[in-house]
Amino acid sequence: MSVTQSSGGAAFSQINVSGTSYTDNNVLPGTTYLCKVKAVVGSATTNFSNNDLATTTTFTDANSLQGISILATHLLEIRNAANMVLVAANLPTVSWPSLTSGVTVIQASDIAAVRTALVNAYYSIGLPIPNFSEPITAGTTIVKATHFQELRNLVN
Asked: What is the number of other CB atoms lying within 10 angstroms of the CB of residue 59?
């Protein structure tokens, strides 16, 4: 197996791997990595796989948002993770509006903005464009935990 990895928008670099599996114990917190893998069997090799994305971020209420009130903290975390993905895609980060914990109400436009950033990053990286469970319409859509979970899944 041959593995190449990129982070921070840098060029891909080769990782020495022996065997048929690999665990990266050298990842940094708060970083998005792009990886490509190809199989090597004897002298035969496959082409590299499509990019795979992994972000080393920890979310508040990481196990599930089911039944939890969505807070400014959750939005801040997903915005930061989206910016990490944009960096990995060599795209400019987004300057998000300020949040005040306990005061800022999460709006449908907040979800839509993060979705747009991630769709742009996925397109740039060459990953399939994400499908979302329901459309977001500013002013009419009630923000749900499922909207946040979808975004979390896209950055992990």
From this structure: 17
Four-residue CA torsion sign, 16, 1, 154, 13? positive
How many Å apart are CA 48 and CA 9, to the nearest integer? Answer: 18
Buried b (16+ CB within 10 A) or exposed e, 21-34: ebeeeeeeeeebbb
- Are 139 and 108 in contact, with CB atoms under 8 Å apart? yes
pLDDT, tens only, 55-98: 888 888 777 777 777 788 889 999 999 999 999 999 999 999 88
Distance CA 33, CA 35 (A): 6
Contact call for residues 82 and 94 (beta carbons, < 8 A)? yes
Q: What is the pTM of this model?
A: 0.83
- Pairing outcome for strands 52-55 and 40-41: unpaired
pLDDT digits (tens, 9 = 90+) for 26-48: 888 888 888 888 887 878 888 88
